[in-house]
Amino acid sequence: MKKLFSLASLAVLFTFVLSCSTNQEEIVEKYENGNPKTIYIYKTDKKQRIKTAEERLYENGKRRMYGKYDNDKRTGKWEFCFSNGELFARADFTNSPTGSGWEVYDTNGENLVTKDDKVLELHFAEDGGLCDVKIKKGEGEIFYKFFESFKPCIVSEMKGNIPNGKTTSWFENGQINSSYHYKDGIQDKEYKVYTEEGKTLIKGQYDMGTKVGKWEYFLSDGSPAGTEIYDVDGTLLKGRNE
């Protein structure tokens, strides 16, 4: 009888301990349509409420990011996703406030940053999402900047803190906004600007910061808006209204 009592007591004690450490979810932020935006996961230990994880979601209900916390700091593996649920990035925050072993992908699944790439610097947005990252690539560097949706905003070849090589920017709908080149921080070679619908607005050429050759301008509907002609030294030979 005594043995049965002891077993029953242990069962009650186990149930009590388990209930005290059970994870609890709390919706701390919602979208206007009522869907959860931010969820904190807590556990109660010795009457203390401790945050153990965080989940952020898109308005459509898909997960935006998820990861664990330890002593109010990110820890373990975190994942960041596009609004369609596909993986954007992952990293390990164990003993690393900015994460290690970063893997970053574009919307087509192309691997932009691999675990083997050396991350030179990165920044996070206010909600903790990856905002930009600069990596060592061969003899140069590449800087990636992202929209809040994690879609690429700017990709720029760099040398130190100055652009050196091709720079491309996008609209959030995926259309190219502009495409141009730098040489040691000075604009060089082709220069193109587009509308959000993909039509060309400006098309021209630089020679180390100087406009040269033919520059074409267009209206947003694609119709011509004039042409400029420059000499090799940058002298304007023909204006748009001539």
Task: Specify the helix fraction band.
Answer: under 10%
Judged by helices, strands and strand pairing, the structural class is mainly beta
Q: What is the β-strand count?
A: 19
Low-pLDDT regions: 1-20
Shape: elongated
Mean pLDDT: 91
User: What is the oligomeric state here?
Assistant: single chain
Distance linking N and C termini: 108 Å
Query: What's the arrangement of strands in the largest beta sheet?
Result: 9-10-11-12-13-14-15-16-17-18-19
H/E element string? HEEEEEEEEEEEEEEEEEEE
Strand content: over 45%
The whole-angstrom Rg is 27 Å
Main beta sheet, described? 11 strands, antiparallel
Q: How many H/I helices?
A: 1
Question: Could you please describe the fold and organization of this structure?
Answer:
- The chain is mostly beta strands.
- The chain has one helix at residues 2-20, and strands at 23-30, 36-45, 48-57, 63-70, 73-81, 87-92, 100-105, 111-113, 118-124, 130-137, 140-146, 152-159, 162-170, 176-183, 186-194, 200-207, 210-218, 224-230, 236-238.
- The strands form 2 sheets. Strands 9-10-11-12-13-14-15-16-17-18-19 form an 11-stranded antiparallel β-sheet, with no helix packed on it. An 8-stranded antiparallel β-sheet has the order 1-2-3-4-5-6-7-8, with no helix packed on it.
- It is elongated.
- The N and C termini lie far apart (108 Å).
- Residues 1-20 have low confidence and may be disordered.
